[in-house]
Amino acid sequence: MPLVGGNTARLLGDYDATFAEMVVDIDKAKRWVHVEFYILSLDTTTAPFFDAMERAVQRGVTVRVLMDHIQSMRKPGYRKTLKRLTESGVTWELMLPLQPLKGKWQRPDLRNHRKLVTVDGVVGYMGSQNIIDRTYNMKSNLRRGLKWKDLMTRLEGPIVAGLNAIFITDWYGETNELLTRDIQPVQPTQAPHTLDCQVVPSGPGFEGENNLRLFLALLYYAQERIVITSPYFVPDESIMYAITTATQRGLHVELFVSEIGDQALVYHAQRSYYEELLRAGVIIYMYKAPYVLHAKHFTIDDEVAVIGSSNMDMRSFSLNFEVSLMVRGRSFVRDLRAVEDGYRADSKLLTLDDWMKQPLRSTILDNLARLTSAVQ
Length: 376
Description:
Layout: E1 4-12, H1 15-27, E2 32-37, H2 47-58, E3 62-68, H3 69-73, H4 78-88, E4 91-95, E5 111-112, E6 115-119, E7 123-127, H5 139-144, E8 147-149, E9 152-156, H6 159-175, E10 195-202, H7 210-221, E11 225-229, H8 237-248, E12 252-258, H9 264-271, H10 274-280, E13 283-287, E14 291-293, E15 297-300, E16 304-308, H11 314-318, E17 320-328, H12 330-345, E18 347-350, H13 352-355, H14 360-371
Parallel strand pairs: 2-3, 3-4, 5-17, 8-14, 11-12, 12-13
Antiparallel strand pairs: 1-9, 1-10, 2-6, 6-7, 7-9, 10-17, 11-15, 13-18, 15-16, 16-17
Helix pairs in contact: 1-2, 7-8, 9-14
């Protein structure tokens, strides 16, 4: 998809406030609202979002919802969520459904990991946050006190049409319905737009690993500084070469990860890369518990940033449908730098000396988990 100019992008890092902003824009919808998320669940935190969709339907607005079947089904309240959508008059579909008794079957390891909202083609949201409480309502998370820390971006300008094209494609893939007549954008009000943006979809349906190619191109393009935030950092060999080559070229490279993990195998596989990265000169910050730093973004020098749903791991490169947004503009990078400063203040710096003090059993467990990382 092309790089287009004339856009604005505003970062949203407060979990509840992000829902509140989306509710405001849904309440302004005149023709249609498109919602697509890896996890969509009705609970106390997300109830206002569902209320806003219902109000939109009552005003005559068409509301379409896509959610990944397996991941949404695994969360508490799944049947209640579907019932609420149906009773609200929302048109909804499951993405990549695994329902053999209904004749719907495909590889269960393929998932749609995208997270986006578009309203009338004027406003769009995308990033890392799902439609669910920040604890994910799981007993294990509640017992450990885990809370997710995410980052979304609110978009205006021509790029919203590109983001909506992702929804249209996924809707067609699940329904065979091509949305053409009722998705023309409402004419937006004039506002100063300064950013160049490019929507980069990726997934098993593409011949090349679009997100991996984008990440590699930018890592090798960097001249001064690279800052990566990835909750599940399980890179392939090409990413490791790009990062370690950057440090050898004298670049300042930082990596933000979580101090704790919600997925044991992925968490331990990620840890297996720390020693190599630290020896190469990468600065690693571990975001302090009980928060899981779930945001997915990186910055290149003071010019380019990428934000979206894609982790830097092999699952995101090969098995998940993802969407990333590349933004070229110093103002956006500056805003993302401020977010990184916030992470740094709430993180623990990991040193090679500290890391080498971990017990042998931890090293063995990390390396064993790494062996299975391609299928996690």
